[in-house]
Amino acid sequence: MTATSVGALLLCRAAPLSVRPVAHLLQEGMSLVPAGDGWSVLVPEGKPWRRDGSPGDGGVGAEPVDRVVGGWATALAVGSTWPVLALWWDGDRSGYTLAAGFRRPVGYTWLADGTPVGEDEAMRTFGVRLGLDPVLDVQALEGLTRADPEADADIRLRGLLAVLSRTGVELPPGLTPGESADRLRSVAGILPQAEQIEWAGWRDAVRVELDTVESGSLGPWVLGPRARAIASAQVAAGLPLTLWGARRRSGGWAAAGLLLLVQGLLGFAYDRLRGSAGGSWSSGR
What we know:
Layout: E1 7-12, H1 16-24, E2 30-34, E3 40-44, H2 65-78, E4 84-89, E5 93-99, E6 106-111, H3 120-129, H4 136-143, H5 153-164, H6 181-190, E7 195-197, H7 202-215, H8 227-247, H9 251-276
Antiparallel strand pairs: 1-3, 1-4, 2-3, 2-7, 4-5, 5-6
């Protein structure tokens, strides 16, 4: 890792078919690639953590990479039924943020030389939320929280991925923690199974979302009686989060709020559409 090796990956515990419509709502260009059995990875095409700063990484006014991708992970997780793991790194630190539903995200950080600066409890919570083995896997994770002069931040993230490989994670060759965002984008662009996620406006995003809802690929709750309650919670959480992100000029958290709002409003619209059509919702399915 070097001072210019700033980058991030978003691991989603879902197939690309389920990730695609939610990723569109982030309004960011990304490459979507299968990443093992039941996993996908999103590779950012831009570097939004540098939009408001100087040309150098971490310039005055620039939003840190961990804050940007943390907002993205939260947005993806609350708009879906699967967890999202953001891996991030810059010249000084590396770490992860795990978002799952409406629960508070959990994360851990290492300095560039591998020194742990996170809380041990966060690592244990990480294992529980991903359903990892409470003995073998959690012991391996706890090893990443101990001092090791031979393990830098890159090695720590690779160790984390080694544990996750037992859940099916398999990143494509070249998508390696510690690489620059430009290098990751170049690698993702030539992978045969990669597809581009481009923002084409709200009309197309809503159409894609509704098509996915009809197919049921976002999960069973969108076709059941819980949908209205979830939609209400999404709108209630999305509005203040959008305003907070706008005030803080935080693109990641503003995107999370907008995605929540859109998901909630679509939930209400879909519920009304299905109810007026005498569909399965009116029968309490």
